[in-house]
Amino acid sequence: GTNNLQGYAPICLGLEDFYTRRLYLRIQDCFGRPIASAPDAWFNVVERYSNDNNKTLKRTSKLSRCLNLGSYNYLGFAAADEYCTPRAIESLKKYSPSTCSSRVDGGTTVLHNELEKCVADFVGKPAAIVLGMGYVTNSAILPVLVGKGGLIISDSLNHNSIVNGARGSGATIRVFQHNTPSHLEEVLREQIADGQPRTHRPWKKIIVIVEGIYSMEGELCKLPEIIAICKKYKVYTYLDEAHSIGAVGKTGRGVCELLGVDTADVDIMMGTFTKSFGSCGGYIAGSKELIQYLKYTCPAHLYATSISPPAAEQIISAIRVILGEDGSNRGAQKLARIRENSNFFRSELQKMGFEVLGDNDSPVMPVMLYNPAKIPAFSRECLKQNVAVVTVAFPATPLLLARARICISASHTKKDLMKALEVISQVGDLVGIKYFPAEPKKQ
Ligand code: PMP
Questions:
Q1: Which residues form the Aminotransferase class I/classII large domain (predicted)?
Q2: What is the model's pLDDT at position 30?
């Protein structure tokens, strides 16, 4: 599974030598040819990202621009922005690129406090804590929230950072079938009887973990049903909104807003700034007591350098644009645009006969390839025509469920999308991945 923007993803095989019983790794292209510089083939070099409508530059014998359908730049903020960029540059001059200190040792600037307040207000919680990396937010916070004697009930397709945090916590882990509330209830019922109070249960604490939009499936969480079950069994909920915060909901406030869930019903709200906000870092938002506790106990807060000031300023400014506090209606336009673009692209792909996973309004669009051997050909042929797509396969997906994962951005124009559809359609025919006839053939 790789962000295979350049289209040269090799196929990686773990083979066992029959005679020596030694395991070795063989990396080959889709024609079975070994790739000499194999390890580096996974790390594609993108020459640079440019400002104009989510284009990126590929590096071949000569530089050429290509349409980026791979990165999570949902609202188009990962580019020079008329409001965010001058502010990020000012903060760079004022604070430098790094605080070179942890939050407790001089790494808390005015910006850091402002960012946490701004994020808490935006997501609708009393307080928030910000860490320098989204991945670490899950993997370092979960072990602080729950430990031995606790129980984590996790969606089977939760992100690796959640899996890592859950394993590191020492809590018992149970997995429920992806986005299936009835199975979550079954798992819970095995552990506790209906309505048993929190103090009379075999577990010190129970946390149910879900994602707002699943990053490999493009699917919205069945949050209202899941919340109802969590309330019934009096267990905590942890919601990772990496792909939904900023990207969905009338004012960009994520799946709670989109699905009509009261944020008071979600105990722990997590998200990252690397998608809709065009920056980096992650947050946890919750009650004042919870955040205070995390600030004094989470090692990644106490011992890691605080988020870079220009990155913090980028997030604050992007939220101001989304809320219209920059004095323009660009934020509202971006939100309308990503919704329109996503729904248009998904329905056009389906009309062409592609199998596309996920729900309406979701900017994440997995196009099923199934056979992992089709991956390199699909992305390489798209790239030849200057359309960069990301393909994902095992271990990020089950072995025979390889897919191209298209991410739509508010900064894609209609013309961009039309070109992408044309290229993807041609490549789909070439590689043989159209599974449904668009219309019944007339005789
Ligand atoms: N949670 C989810 C659901 C993700 O998809 C990702 C990464 N794409 C992360 C957490 C980690 O976030 P980051 O890339 O910002 O470190």
A1: 66-424
A2: 46
